[in-house]
Amino acid sequence: MCQVGEDYVDPPPRECPPAPRxxxxxxxxxxxxxxxxxxxxxxxxxxxxxxxxxxxHKFRAMLGKNRLIFPGEKVLLAxxxxxxxxxxxxxxxxxxxxxxxxxxxxxxxVVYVDEGAVCGQSLEDRAKTLAEVQQILCSISFPWHVVSLxxxxxxxxxxxxxxxxxxxxxVARAHSYSKVMTGDSCTRLAIKLMTNLALGRGAFLAWDTxxxxxxxxxxxxxxxxxxxxLKEVAFYNRLFAVPSVFTPAVDTKAPEKASIHRLMEAFxxxxxxxxxSTVSTVYRTSEKLAKxxxxxxxxxxxxxxxxxxxxxxxxxxxxxATAFGVQTSxxxxxxxxxxxxxxxIPTTPCSxxxxxxxxxxxxxxxxxxxxxxxIKQLCYSCRANMKDLxxxxxxxxxxxxxxxxxxxRAWVMQDIQEYLIKDSADEAETTES
Amino acid sequence: MAAPLSxxxxxxxxxxxxxxxxxxxxxxxxxxxxxxDIRSLLIWIxxxxxxxxxxxxxxxxxxRPGILVLINDADWELLGELDYQLQDQDSILFISTLHGx
Lengths: 433, 101
Description:
Chain B: Its main location: cytoplasm. The structure holds 2 protein chains of 2 kinds. Helix content of chain A is 41%, strand content 9%. Chain A is of the alpha/beta class. In chain A, the strands form 2 sheets. A 6-stranded mixed β-sheet of chain A has the order 5-4-3-6-8-7, with helices on both faces. A two-stranded antiparallel ribbon of chain A has the order 1-2. In chain B, a hairpin with a 2-residue loop joins β5 (67-71) and β6.
């Protein structure tokens, strides 16, 4: 399928035989009567009604087989305005309506994140988009929340932090939602899986692309649209008039080589065009990914978490060649002043938090938010991203504060180790690690 | 000799950004020797409607992978794709799936 040295600018000519195509005059493969309107898989054409039933069934089956959402549970629907999440909100609306044979029984709310400020939209366009959004939201009977990503909070690097996710999580926690539903489609997740592999996030694929993502602990993210391809979503929305609001993103007209994500997107779409089972194959493979807890975790089954992406740290400092490689390059890019401060770490811990009153100043060298301290609290992939940063300045204060807090906690733990009563199991672990 | 055709060309899912933001275009295709098909329509669109970045819409003689084509609200895969011969009053919709979620 793929050739080394393939030129991504000019696609190769279509030498492989095209996938079997449904002929004209064929009937719907399901009911054998209706006029087919959409080819769902290679050779399978559905009529309008059968397609609708197929689409809805997929949504219900995804929720039903995973059994993670309970009757009466508060579920926050993350709506971006885009086709997939719009379709998802629509499915929930229909599913909750009285007429449904099997009513959905959870309690939904909707959150919309306004990213107009960071996407360079003019005030006029932002207002227009928001007006469209409000119009749709007002027609929904359940509670909704609109939050904005402000320019002040964003720099190019915070783009990496998924501030959108953090914001949505914040809204969920503030309003006691225990679940968040996102509209990630099959196609998007296949692209995400490939992209994340390239970005060094192999350890977290099951969380990044699976049905449920428990990294936040109290709020679980679920992806009920993960069995729907973008093509199915687009057709459904068109045939059944699902409202959506289009907002251009930062990378909307970016060329293919602008980012790994764009490149992977083009790659997957191109393959899919010639081999229509590409996306479903990647999806089925991703279903097999198991979430296995790490065995050599010194801090219990949960383990320390990455500051940025909140996944359990995947770097084993003891033996991993990759950890060594990333750390070395990070250190080599540190400014000399920080290196000097590191060299002169005193033995007595600074009792102040975050450079507050009582802090002995930079001389204490125990800056919890110094670059090496922060990097130590990142997973492999986030470290790789961070090593391109000359300093920590672009990071938002809440991240640096968290880094500081964790470092302080670790120092305190180290200091009081000898006073802690351990049982024999802990003793064995400590000596081993 | 094919008579001139009047068709509606529509863009969605963000594809309209390449056409000055205008979603619906009422188009009259001039009469010509060969009958109009999607292939020749794309060439016409590239020449007459596309305002910028042709590579984001067209690839080779077809649409860029990720762009869906609906002819009268039906999948073009069921109608012969590029070889479908246009008829008067047809409605052709191009939806980009390359953006949004």
